[in-house]
Design goal:
alpha/beta; Rossmann fold; ten-stranded mixed β-sheet; three-stranded antiparallel β-sheet; 15 strands; 16% strand; globular; binds guanosine-5'-triphosphate; binds magnesium ion; protein transport
C-alpha cells in the first residue's frame, strides 16, 4: 500500500489530484485545513500505473477523452460481459470518509450509509422508574384532581369537543367520498367491485372517479374492469420516438437513490451498442460526493466514450457549447439531493443552453408519490420533458405512479425493472406498462386477497 499527503486549495481540487495519481481505488485516511487550503492523506493498494485513458487538464475540469485510436469496434457480447461485471452501481466506500468535511457533505454521508450504521447508537428508552407506588399515585392523582378540579374539567371538556369536531369532520368527509365514488351500489348496497379493484390497484380517487364515469354500468364487471384499464393504457403519455434514437441532451433528475445513474448507464450502453461510442458524451454534475463520479468514469471506460465533470474552469455551459453539435447524445447525471439539483439547475440557468437540455424525472415506483409530487413542485421552474419509472420489479402497486404521470401529463420515456445494465430498461408503451403492473399486482393480490379487501375502503377514504 502506498500513502501520500496531498495539498490543494480546495477539497475538490485535492480529490482530483488524488484521483489522477492514485486512481479510483484511493482511500482517504484523513484530511485537515492547512492555511487557506487542505491537506489530505490518501492511500492506495496499487497505484494506477497504466491507465487506459489520460486525465487531461488535471488541475481543471476532469475530462476523460477516449481518442479514436483507443476505440475498438463495438463487440456487443464482449461489452455485455464487461457491463455485467460492474453489476449494480455501488457507492465508493471512500466517499464516506471524505464526506465528513462539511455539514452539507455530512448530510450526504448519512443518506448513503446503510440504516444500521446510521442508527449505530440506538437510544434505549428505559421505562421510567415509578416515583411512588400505584396506591400513592392514585392518591396523588385524586389530590391533584381536587386541587385543580375546575381547570382540568375545562381542559377535558375542551378535548371532548375537539374530538367531536374531528369525528364530525371525518363523517362529513366520508359521506362526501361515498357520493363521489359509487362504492356501494345495488339494492343491497354491495361494494362496487370495479371501484374497489381500481382503488386497490392504487389509482388516485380522481382517476377512479373519471374511469367509473367513462365505463358504462350496463357492462358486466369484468368488462368494466378491462375497459377501465384500456382507458388507463391509452391515457398514459409516452414519447413517440425513443430518446436514444432521437438523440439530444438529457439530464437525469430525481430523488437520491431513485435510479438516475443506473438508468443513464443503461441508456448509454444501449446507445453504444446501436450507434457506437464516439457520438456519446457522459457528464457528471455530482461534484459533491467523491465516489459519485466513479461509476460514470468506469462506464465511460467500458463503453469507450467521453466523460466530463464540469467545474469552475470548464462550466456546464462551456461543455454544452463545445459538444452539443459534435455529440449526438449527451447524458447528464445529477445529484439527487436538494442542493445537488439546485446546483445543476443554477448551472443551467447561468448559461444560454438551458433550452437545449431536456430534463428527465426519474420516478422510483417504490416511493410514495407525495414525495415525488413535492420534488416536482419544488423544481417546477424547469419543466420535466419526460419520466423514467424505475424499480418496477420491486413495487407491488404501480397505480400511484401511473396516476401521477397521467395527472401531471408527464410523458413516460422508459421503465426499468432490475439492476442489470443494459437489459433492464424498456421503452414505455401504455398497454405494456399497464399489463406489467396488473400482472405483478395480481400476483400479490391473489396471495393476500383479504389484506387488499381490508385496505380498499380505507384507501378510498384517505386518498
Ligand atoms: N431492483 C431495482 N433496482 C434498481 C433499479 N434501478 C436502480 N436500481 C438500484 O437502485 C440503487 C440506486 O440506484 P442509483 O442509480 O445509484 O440511484 P441514483 O438516483 O443515481 O442515486 P444518487 O446518485 O445517490 O442520487 C442501486 O442499487 C441500483 O442498482 C431497478 O429498476 N430495479
Ligand atoms: Mg447517482
Amino acid at each position: 500500500m502506498k500513502t501520500k499527503r496531498f495539498h490543494a486549495r480546495s477539497m475538490s481540487e485535492g480529490l482530483k489530484k488524488i484521483s489522477a495519481e492514485f486512481g479510483d481505488e484511493a482511500i482517504i485516511l484523513s484530511n485537515r485545513k492547512v492555511g487557506s487550503g487542505v491537506e489530505i492523506l490518501a492511500a492506495v493498494e496499487h497505484p494506477a500505473a497504466d491507465r487506459m485513458y489520460q486525465y487531461s487538464e488535471p488541475d481543471g475540469a476532469e475530462i476523460i477523452r477516449a481518442t479514436n485510436t483507443d476505440r475498438e469496434p463495438v463487440d456487443k457480447e464482449h461489452l455485455m460481459g464487461l457491463l455485467s461485471s460492474i453489476g449494480p452501481l455501488k457507492k465508493n466506500p471512500a466517499a464516506q470518509a471524505v464526506t465528513q468535511l462539511s455539514g452539507y457533505q455530512k448530510k450526504h454521508a448519512e443518506y448513503n450509509q446503510p440504516k444500521a450504521q446510521i442508527q449505530s447508537k440506538p437510544q434505549v428508552h428505559k421505562p421510567a422508574k415509578p416515583q411512588s407506588s400505584p396506591r400513592a399515585m392514585t392518591t396523588n392523582k385524586s389530590a391533584a384532581a381536587t386541587r385543580s378540579g375546575a381547570g382540568e374539567s375545562r381542559e377535558i371538556s375542551g378535548m371532548r369537543s375537539e374530538i367531536q369536531d374531528l369525528r364530525r369532520l371525518l363523517e362529513q368527509q366520508s359521506q362526501e367520498l361515498r357520493k363521489i365514488i359509487p362504492l356501494r351500489h345495488g339494492a343491497n348496497e354491495s361494494v362496487d367491485p370495479v371501484a374497489e379493484k381500481l382503488s386497490q390497484f392504487g389509482l388516485s380517487i380522481d382517476l377512479v372517479k373519471m374511469l367509473l364515469a367513462e365505463v358504462p354500468v350496463s357492462l358486466g364487471n369484468e368488462d368494466r374492469w378491462k375497459q377501465a384499464l384500456a382507458i388507463v393504457s391509452s391515457r398514459i403519455e409516452t414519447c413517440q420516438t425513443e430518446l436514444v434514437r432521437k438523440g439530444g441532451i438529457y439530464a437525469f433528475n430525481g430523488l437520491t437513490g431513485s435510479g438516475k445513474t443506473t438508468s443513464l448507464a443503461k441508456l448509454a450502453a444501449r446507445f453504444v451498442m446501436e450507434q457506437g461510442a464516439d457520438q456519446l458524451l457522459l457528464v457528471s454534475m455530482d461534484q459533491f460526493r467523491i465516489g459519485a463520479q466513479d461509476t460514470l468514469k468506469t462506464l465511460s471506460k467500458i463503453l469507450q466514450c467521453d466523460f466530463i465533470s464540469p467545474d469552475d474552469t470548464l462550466t456546464l455551459e462551456d461543455v454544452l457549447q463545445r459538444y452539443s453539435r459534435s455529440k449526438r447524445l449527451i447524458l447528464i447525471d445529477t445529484c439527487g439531493s436538494r442542493e445537488g439539483t439546485e446546483y445543476f439547475l443554477d448551472s443551467l440557468a447561468a448559461g444560454t443552453m438551458s433550452s437545449k437540455v431536456r430534463n428527465i424525472l426519474v420516478i422510483p415506483s417504490t416511493t410514495t408519490m407525495d414525495v415525488i409530487q413535492d420534488y416536482m413542485d419544488r423544481f417546477s421552474r424547469y419543466p420535466f420533458y419526460a419520466s423514467v419509472l424505475t424499480k418496477v420489479d420491486e413495487s407491488c402497486r404501480l397505480g400511484p405512479a401511473l396516476s401521477l404521470v397521467m395527472e401531471k401529463q408527464l410523458p413516460m420515456a422508459y421503465w426499468t425493472d432490475g439492476q442489470n445494465i443494459p437489459e433492464d430498461i424498456h421503452v414505455a408503451r401504455g398497454h405494456h406498462i399497464v399489463s406489467r403492473a396488473i400482472t405483478s399486482w395480481r400476483k400479490r393480490y391473489e396471495q393476500k386477497p383479504d389484506a387488499y379487501s381490508r385496505n380498499a375502503e380505507q384507501h378510498l377514504m384517505v386518498n
